[in-house]
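User: Protein folding is very new to me. Would you mind checking the protein record under this note? It all follows right here:
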Amino acid sequence: MKLILLSGGSGKRLWPLSNDARSKQFLRILDDKFHTNKISMVQRVWQQLKISNLSDDSFIATSQSQVEILNNQLEDNIKLVVEPERRDTFPAIALAATYLYSMCGVNLNETIAILPVDPYVDDNFFECIKELDDVLFQSGADIALIGVKPTYPSEKYGYIIPNYNERDNKYLSVHSFVEKPHKTKAQTMIDQGALWNCGVFAFKLDYLINLLIEYGLPIQYENMLRQYDTIPSNSFDYEVVEKTNNIVVKPFDGYWRDLGTWNTLTDEMSSSIIGRGHISEDSYNSHLINELNLPVNVLGLSNIVVAVSPDGILVSDKSASPRIKEVLKQDTSRPMFEERRWGYYQVIDYSQNSENDHILTKRICITKGNNLSYQYHVYREEMWTVVSGEGELVLDNQYQILKKGDLIKIPPKTKHSVKALTDLEIIEIQLGSNLVEEDIIRINSEWSEIIKLCVV
């Protein structure tokens, strides 16, 4: 069995912590299994995959914008299938399937399981995923789903309606699907045996490859990449599942939650406060998440969430927090915090001087052993101040050691890279006419190759 984890989206339902660069699955809010460190949803799932001995056979389908943060949060040898542009789940799964088929040589009879990268589940959920291989074999179905036994009549989830006259413990044939019904209808369906659709399903690789041939789409990965923008940008549910008759579902009677809103995410936080701040004793069921080094005090307010990050501040009644997505619909502000493969950066200030130059100040933190790519910028110059740590600097093929207190000026079109010998913190001031992340021409990312370019 091979697993494809879907890591897409740039949702803002958990703003100001989530943004176009940091989706909800990357927020370090949950406890690890030892309750010693804060981890993200994707890190938690990866830990569970390793416990279930599934990580070696797992691939993550993602967009280019998430490659660096995935490399930062997970181990170096993760296998990524990167979309050339962000589209829906059908193109993403099709691309991953052609990668497995034509690049990895996966057998057409192999079971392929698809799941979101961020479910909040017990470890035994992954044992249930393993059983989908046997379910497909025994049932002869084209697609096997996992359906979660509901604990309440939610209006936020889709429902799988099995054939009610069946009582097989391993799987049931699927009659139909109902998307986000009214609470009353949901309760009626639950009483009759309906299951939550948790977005997990499996099929034989042969099934999807033949479907792509039927659609006239390429089955070779390189050809799929070239034609990616022509593939229907639809969900896999719409393009495949709803048009398939022979579908079964395996019920899962265990803990499963979609932590897609502040209301659900705070339910899984072990502490009501993350970061610097205080919540008064007469504030009930309130949570504070503070990423800034500023004190935040919550006094006499119950059932609220306060979230503080470089991108902004949210103060909301928990039940109203999903409305932030509508508030930010037209917002095009740049993310003020990003995790990269080498560490992270935070935008401290942005301004414009009397000469109409744009000025951007960043705090850059490079973790020990990592390096920036060898790069240059066309439209800006940079000034670096080393705040702490020690590193190696290559500046226009010249090598030098960086240490605390050093000042480095980097004019436009000057090639530069730095490697952290210890955790390295740099204050960077950008000055120019066009201060965008896209103004980066990368020459090389491997430090061993960068060093070879240095003049002796």
User: Anything to note?
Assistant: The radius of gyration is 24 Å.
